[in-house]
Amino acid sequence: MPQPLVIANWKMNPQTLTEAKQIFVGIKNAAKKHPSVSVVLAPPAIYLTELMKSAGGAVSLAAQNTHSEPLGSFTGEISPTMISALGAKYIIVGHSERRMIGESNGDVAKKIMATLKARLTPIVCIGESARDSQGNFFTFIETQVETAFEIVPRTRFKDIVIAYEPIWAIGTGATATVEDVKEMQLFILKILTKHFGRTAAEQVTIIYGGSVKPDNAAKLYEAGGMSGFLVGGASLKVTDFATIIVATAN
Q1: Is 202 a catalytic residue?
Q2: 168 is in an annotated binding site
Q3: Active site residue: 34, 95, 97, 128, which one?
Q4: Who contacts 55 (Cβ-Cβ below 8 Å, separation ≥6)?
Q5: Which residues, at least 6 apart from 174, have a Cβ–Cβ distance to it below 8 Å?
Q6: Which among 8, 25, 224, 238 counts the fewest CB atoms within 10 Å?
Q7: A GO CC term (predicted)?
Q8: How many CA atoms lie within 13 A of 224 on its CB side?
């Protein structure tokens, strides 16, 4: 198993920098107790500079989104180069909430390459909006994975994280079963192997996101086969997120 990876995605929270600093300090202290776990925090971009000042070595920072171009006339956008200059190490790419406002598989692929060119790690989100009894959602996942990786050199697969986030389980309280998570972990590995070869496939880190909470994290981690979690709401509560970190600690 690769080193466990636990990522906090704060989305558009909290409301103030003061709150952000308080939560950040709590997460950093929790992460220090478990050096075997890689802990990453993705705050709103407006907080990145201030949080970086006290990041230290226990927590790495991530951006929640990026543009695919390094610079240009793109009002309101942020490039991977800018994110790298701030000291962040990761960028979340293709989150379901971005896809819902029009981001395509092709857009995601371009952002992955832009992130890699900036020597940052893309956290590539994939996931189905619903499951059907015929299993058509597997085809949907395969298309997302194949499109995301087809222009990526095989040598860079080790620098990519896939976050499987079933959309029907995000912020709904519903959670995929351990069997669902394990099945998808094996399926994603199968897809990568089919299209890009086993050696390259085994280099990709695969994590789970979708209503991960303190009371289900340990079971999901132990039996689900994933290498960690992408955590939403629970990452804004220090005690809850600390428990999730503990669940993945060796």
Answers
A1: no
A2: no
A3: 95
A4: 28, 61, 87
A5: 168, 210, 211
A6: 25
A7: cytosol
A8: 28
Catalytic-role residue among 34, 67, 128, 165:
165
Segment 114-169, tens digit of pLDDT: 999 999 999 999 999 888 778 789 999 999 999 999 999 999 999 999 999 998 88
Look-up: residue for tokens 């029907």?
168
Distance CA 70, CA 60 (A): 22
What CATH number should be reported for the domain holding residue 95? Answer: 3.20.20.70
Count how many domains the chain has.
1
Q: Is 104 annotated as a binding residue?
A: no
Phi and psi, residue 167, nearest 5°: -60, -35
Closest CA to 7 of 90, 111, 83, 85: 90
pTM exceeds cut of 0.85: yes
Range of the domain at 198: 5-248
Known catalytic membership, residue 142: no
